[in-house]
Design a protein that fits this description.
It is built from twelve helices and six strands. It is an alpha+beta fold. The strands form two sheets. Strands 2-3-1-6 form a four-stranded antiparallel beta sheet. Strands 4-5 form a two-stranded antiparallel ribbon. The longest helix has 81 residues.
Length: 425
């Protein structure tokens, strides 16, 4: 089975080769026609295209003014990316100036901005700060003139743009500097007015005086409380003793023992029975009396101490209330002072920064150098880049060969079909 399949494939391949050999003149003819046609078109129909190339170098500004973020927001940056420069090169404004300078809009050229834009290609050379400008045209001299004119115009335009941006920055900083000067003057004036009427020193002095009084009053209050405790303890002790003591003492005496009665008996005569008489009397207990007097004195002293304690507590409460009010007023005064000082400091800093930037821009304006420089201008190209005649002829020959083979097989198929039709008839 496999041998039969191999034999069939060998027969088919041999048939193909026989067709190619038998129809070789068709294949050769088609191939030659394609080659000759491509050669005719390349040499006599297609116009040669020449490419002229110039190279630019982009560098950072020699004097670069770095502004604060708040200020930078309003001023365009003079440092652009290479991609931005590439887009600026092909701006319609520059293209129109190139056309006008070289009179490319006049016969026989009659080029438009769109035509010129298609002729130029801009390439950013990788890992460098170089930009390559390549222009294609049928005239080598015109290609050189256009790309060189374009290059010089762009360098000049970029220099003008850089100078314009620096001047815009200068004008902006000048306006902001004047506004900042006014703000600083207003802030300092408010600070001066506040210092003339502020009560910070007076409030601090009053607070110190109240605190000293509070210390003295609280110290006295502590002594009074201690004295009250002592008096209360003394009163309790005296009351305990009084409970045990009798207020009156009962005394039993004979007439003889009483001096007054004894003298009286001496006058009226002595009677033995009368002399033996005894009588009972009550007298105030001196111990009880002394304790009662001491208790009264302690009660008076306790009342006086409690009155003093109440007055001290009332005065301390008033001191605290006044102290709290003074502290709030002092805090508000200091807050106002802090805010005014902060406003003055910010105004001074802003004015200082703007003054410094104004000087930097002034220096930058006097020493402005172009950020785009010409590395090399284009020279007149000697040989065209298009059309590639050898390549065109080679490709046409290959395509002609394929087409010739297809034509040969088609002719072979056509003739075999006609012979089969004749045999059938």
């Amino acid at each position: 089975m496999d041998k039969e399949r191999i034999n069939e494939e060998e027969i088919d391949l041999r048939d193909y080769l026989e067709v190619i050999v038998r129809r070789k003149w068709i294949i050769i003819g088609v191939t030659l026609a394609a080659v000759i046609g491509a050669g005719m078109v390349s040499f006599f129909v297609l116009r040669p295209v020449y490419q002229a190339t110039s190279i630019l170098m982009v560098s950072k500004p020699k004097y670069q003014v770095e502004l604060e973020p708040k200020i930078q927001t309003f001023i365009p940056s003079t440092e652009l990316s290479l991609e931005t420069y590439g887009n600026l090169i092909k701006s319609g404004n520059i293209e129109q100036k190139v056309i006008e300078k070289l009179s490319l809009n006049q016969p026989p050229n009659e080029l438009t901005v769109e035509d010129l834009d298609k002729m130029l290609s801009v390439e950013i050379i990788k890992n460098t700060n170089l930009i390559k400008m390549s222009l294609e045209d049928n005239s080598p001299r015109r290609a050189m003139e256009i790309v060189n004119t374009w290059t010089n115009l762009f360098v000049k335009e970029n220099e003008g743009l850089l100078l314009k941006e620096v001047r815009e920055a200068q004008a902006f900083v000048k306006r902001e500097l004047e506004a900042s000067r006014q703000e600083l003057f207003k802030a300092e004036e408010k600070m001066r007015e506040f210092n003339e009427r502020n009560k910070i020193d007076v409030l601090e002095k009053e607070i110190r005086e109240i605190l000293n009084k509070m210390v003295n009053y609280e110290s006295r209050l502590a002594d009074v409380k201690m004295s009250i405790k002592k008096e209360e303890a003394r009163i309790e002790q005296i009351n305990a003793i009084l409970k045990k003591e009798e207020r009156f003492l009962k005394l039993t005496k004979s007439i003889i023992e009483d001096p007054f009665l004894h003298q009286l008996m001496d006058r009226i005569g002595r009677d033995e029975d009368v002399l033996n008489l005894r009588f009972t009397s009550e007298e105030l207990n001196p111990v009880y009396d002394n304790l009662a007097q001491e208790l009264a004195s302690s009660m008076i002293s306790l009342h006086s101490l409690k009155t003093e304690k109440s007055e001290l507590e009332k005065n301390i409460a008033n001191f605290k209330k006044n102290l709290e009010a003074l502290k709030k007023e002092l805090a508000q005064e200091k807050l106002t002072q802090s805010r005014l000082e902060r406003v003055v400091e910010i105004a001074r800093q802003t004015f200082g920064v703007l003054s410094q930037k104004a000087e930097e821009i002034k220096i930058s304006l006097g020493a402005t150098s172009n950020t785009v420089k010409v590395v090399s201008l284009a020279t007149e190209p000697r040989s065209p880049i298009k059309p590639r005649k050898g390549q065109n002829i080679l490709i046409s020959g290959v395509l002609g060969l394929f087409v010739g083979v297809l034509v040969a097989f088609f002719v072979e198929y056509w003739e075999e079909s006609r012979e089969r039709e004749k045999k059938v008839k």
